[in-house]
Structure formats: C-alpha cells, structure tokens
Write a structure and sequence with these properties.
alpha/beta, Nonspecific Lipid-transfer Protein, Chain A, Rossmann fold, 2 domains, four-stranded mixed β-sheet, about 45% helix, SAM-dependent_MTases_sf, lipid metabolism, CMAS
Length: about 400
Amino acid sequence: MFWEKKLAAWVEEIRHATALPLRLELWNGRQFDFSDGVPQVTLRVPHVSALTYLFQPSLSNLGEAYVEGKIDVDGPVASIISVANTLAAKTLKAEGKLARIARSIRHSKEKDAEAIRYHYDVSNDFYKLFLDENMVYSCAYFENGDEDLATAQIKKIDHILTKIQVRPGDTLLDIGCGWGALVLRAAQKFGAKCVGITLSENQYALAKERVEKAGLSDRIEIRLQDYRDITGTFDRITSVGMFEHVGLKNLPMYFSRINALLADGGLAMNHGITTTDIENGESPYGGGEFIDKYVFPAGELPHISLVLKAMQQGGLEAFDVENLRKHYAKTCAIWADNFEAKADEIRKITDEKRYRIWRVYLAGSSHGFNQDWISLYQVICGKSNRHADVLPQSRRYIYDATA
C-alpha cells in the first residue's frame, strides 16, 4: 500500500536525522521505534487517516490530532512536548505558515469579551485544581528559586506593588483582576483603595465573594467591565497578564487609556507575555497557530520593542524593565505537574477535549519559555514629559522593602 511505503520512508528519515525516545504503534499492531533506547513516549494511531497529521508534524497538526482524539499519546507530558518539538524542528522547513507568522486580528469589545469567556469561564473549580490557593493565574516570582508556588505568587504581587510604590490611601486600578488576589493584597498589606475589572463572569463572581469574605467591600470594588469603558483617575495602575488580549494594533490606544486614567505623578505596571520574534510573530512550528485555535482566540504577543514603542506613543515613559522569562517557565512547569497530579479530578469536571488542550498547553508553555520563544516582562511606566523624580535613584528600594 502507498501509505506503508510513505510511512516507512518517513520513519527512516526521522531516525536518520535524530534519535527520539519515541515508539509509534499502529492500529494493525505494527510498531516503529525511533531510537535504540527505551522509548519514553508512545504514540498510538488508531486509524490510517491520522497518518496525515504525522507526515506534516507541525505543533499545530500534532496538537490538533491529540486534542481531537485522532491519536493517543502516553508518557510524561514534558517528554511528549519535547518529542513533538523535535519532530517538528527536524522535519519541517522554518518558512511559510510554520514560521513565526504575524496575524492581523480585528479586536472589538464584543470579540474580546467572547475570547475572555472562552478561556477563563471554564469553571472556577477547574482552575482551583492546578493553581495556588489564591488562584493567581500569571507568572510567579521565585526570588530565591526554592519557593513553593503559593509563596512565589505572593512574592510576585508584592514585587509589583513595591515596584510602583503603593502607599496607604492610594487609589489603584487593576486591569484584568482575575480572581482578585492582587487587589486583596494591595488593600490588606499596602492600604490601597482598589478597583479591579474583568470580562470573565466567573472571575467577577468569585472575586466579589472573596472581597466580601475578607471584609474589604469598603476598600475594593470589583467590576465586570472593559478597560475601554473605565473613567476616573488612579494613583497606581496594574495590568497583569491582560495585554496579550489587546491586539498589536490597539497597543498605543491601550497605553493611551492607561495614561488618561493615571494621575499626574502616578505609576503603572504592565506585566505581560511577549514574543521574542522581532517581527512580532508567533511561536515557531505552528505552536502559535495551535494556541490561537484552541487556547487563546485572538491573542497577540508583541515583541518588547513594540511594547516600549507603543507606551511612548500612548504618552508613557518606561522607567524600569525586568525580564521574568525563567520565572514563567518554572511557573508553567509547576502548573503542568499539578495538572497531571489532578488528572482524574479534572476529567470529572470537564470534557476529554478540554483536558487534552490544557494538558499540552501548560507543558508546552513551559517549553516555550525555556526555549526563549516567548518571554515575560514587567515594565514600570508613568506619564512622559514630567520631572524625572517619580522613582528613587536606584532599584534598591524594590529589594530593601521586601528584605
């Protein structure tokens, strides 16, 4: 049969290019090992039609085949991601749609709200199973490297609030407040009066509940609101893990809105994922295509250079830039481990497809941060064309305050 000859040639080509700890099992019982060692990953093909995914093994094709149930894969999830990446890198040309393409996505309030609901409104119980106890869904800060996840997430929040010098009585706006962890900390420890906004109804409901339970309803307001609809003035503004949904073309407008909402002499912090491709392209080998289709519809990642340019266009000056890429690689690895450990419970509260999407997404994200495909930057900014005395002379204040 034609497919038998094509498969044999494909297997031989990969074995010649690299030794993979992979075993391929076909529906008819045939097996192919891609190295002489013990396989760490077993890929099962239940029907001949699924071979088309393998002959063009982009991360998008392999991911789609897995989440749609066209193939099954056994093995440690980190090994699965590593094997998939090597398959793609060794067999595909880094050109065309498999390269780091940049998409042109039209954003609107309605479309952005729909995308947010798709990703965040799975269920609060779903996220509770792999996040920390405070349900912080963004890059943690492992100051010493040996912190547990919950400690590292609190340190991240304190790191942000210390960087922008939140003081008792300050008004603070948190754009994309999640389940409320940052505004709760800002009110409890730093004495701020906070407004947190989200487009996720599940996040909104639980964040309000947590605020009421903490007895902080007089200090914290949670709103179901788009950042484009906010009015007022705030001493401090934070945006953590949100601007990935804004859109590349909308970044100057986004930062202009922050500028308009920021008080004179105020400070803002943008904490978000960036691409490391200077042309603002996606993760290579189809990884970005998979994420757009299954995980973050309409998400767009800018290069840090575009972020800083857009800030300036929006009337903001960047005072401090910190790369936390290795911190996010570790955060995602812990989330992936938690997800694996709670697999049985997760399968009880969601369907198999969503389970598979998130399984490869979390481990794949850790791989992407480790490979320098994506990064994470915290940028402190304030209104431009002002006296340069908003912050202390050195960065020592950040670390002295948390020592």
